[in-house]
Design a protein that fits this description.
Number of strands: 13
Helix content: 10-25%
Structural class: alpha+beta
Mean pLDDT: 86
CATH class of the largest domain: Alpha Beta
Strand content: 25-35%
Radius of gyration: 24 Å
Order of helices and strands: HHHHEHEHEEEEEEEHHEEEE
């Protein structure tokens, strides 16, 4: 399996369309100035948990953008079993937090527990600081403190009902490390045309190499051989996307590689990006996540994403986290007023079964 770790394109090879999703995501993020690092896998897994409760047009739109179908849950479960952080594999973990008092459908709870290993934990999002601290603590622990904060208290309000999170961590040594004493400063040309001196690592080795449509790629394997970094130099003036067929065209060649050391951290709210990619309905009042709680009251308010990558002579460390914040529809703000100051009815019900235990009317509340 190959991975484009500078972009964290760690995606299961069984998903033929993952490359398209990652390429589209990268192209839109790269339209901004500066460095970019993201994890399409982390974004896809976190949103796949929400997709598990989507219905109708909401599910169709998510499936189209995420390039997934009903089999995605089983496939991601299999991937999570492999990505357990042992023997040089990435560590992938998922979690879910539900507002105290809210009820999730048993079928949805089974889905996220069985396929994503996420047993929903109760939180009070009304205590925003404490809720953010709990979620950020989980993410920090799962990413070895590389992503210390994925949510902030201001992401929560009176309507916050569910947060779905994914964390991903990868650390590996090069199969052939670069010799630190060979690293020397050399010019790097910025997008503006300005030249700056940066430390370049260097080695000559038999590695994967490909050239296509003006783009050039080199593949640097990590220890163990299963994972690799593919570094792509796009053709002059071409967008920041991976040309189709370039990675598949890699063939072993004797290559002198000059690669700068780098360290990148990025943070995004992907809401607008995902809408631009065609996933609009989940973020609107038309959202249908009735597979989560049996109602159409939920929508996605925030898709927070952070990623980190560091590359040096020894190898690579990369981490990412994604949090999907789901709220009840309706603007938070001044509370609605319900004053039972005239005869009223009441019932006591089982929210799990829908059964009514007690039913009555109060005409005069005096003892």
């Amino acid at each position: 399996m190959r991975s484009l770790l500078p972009l964290l394109l760690l995606v299961p090879a069984s998903f033929a369309d993952d490359h398209a999703f990652g390429n589209d995501l990268l192209a839109r993020l790269a339209a901004r100035e500066g460095n970019v690092v993201c994890s399409p896998l982390s974004v896809r897994v976190a949103l796949a948990m929400a997709y598990g409760g989507a219905r109708g047009a909401t599910a169709d739109g998510m499936a189209k953008v995420l390039r997934c179908d009903a089999g995605v849950h089983e496939a991601l479960a299999a991937l999570a079993r492999e990505y357990d952080g042992k023997e040089g594999t990435p560590a992938l973990a998922n979690a879910a937090w539900v507002q105290q008092g809210a009820m999730l459908l048993p079928a949805y709870v089974d889905l996220v527990e069985k396929h994503y290993g996420a047993q929903p934990e109760t939180l009070d999002f009304g205590k925003a600081d404490a809720a953010a601290q709990r979620i950020n603590g989980w993410v920090s622990g799962r990413t070895r403190e590389r992503i210390k904060e994925i949510v902030s208290p201001d992401m929560f309000n009176a309507n916050t009902t569910l947060v779905l999170a994914n964390a991903l961590h990868f650390k590996a040594a090069w199969r052939k490390p670069f010799e630190p004493e060979i690293t020397k400063a050399a010019p790097f040309t910025l997008a503006s045309g300005e030249k700056v001196d940066v430390p370049f690592m260097a080695q000559t080795e038999h590695v994967g190499y490909a050239a296509k449509d003006g783009a050039v790629a080199v593949e640097l394997p990590y220890e163990g051989g299963r994972f690799s970094m593919v570094v792509i130099l796009p053709a002059e003036g071409k967008p920041a996307t991976v040309p189709a067929g370039l990675v598949e065209a890699l063939r072993t060649a004797n290559v002198s590689v000059f690669l700068p050391r780098f360290r990148i951290e990025s943070a995004y709210n992907l809401k607008d990006t995902l809408i631009a990619m065609g996933m609009e309905t989940p973020f609107t009042g038309d959202a249908d996540f009735s597979g989560i709680d049996g109602t159409t009251n939920l929508y996605i308010a925030v898709v927070a994403h952070k990623a980190f990558v560091a590359v040096d002579e020894a190898g690579t460390e990369a981490a990412a986290a994604t949090a999907v914040v789901m709220e009840l529809k309706g603007e938070p703000g001044a509370p609605k007023v319900f004053r039972a100051d005239r005869p009223f009815l009441f019932l006591i019900r089982d929210r799990k079964t829908g059964g009514t235990l007690f039913l009555g009317r109060v005409s005069d509340p005096r003892p």
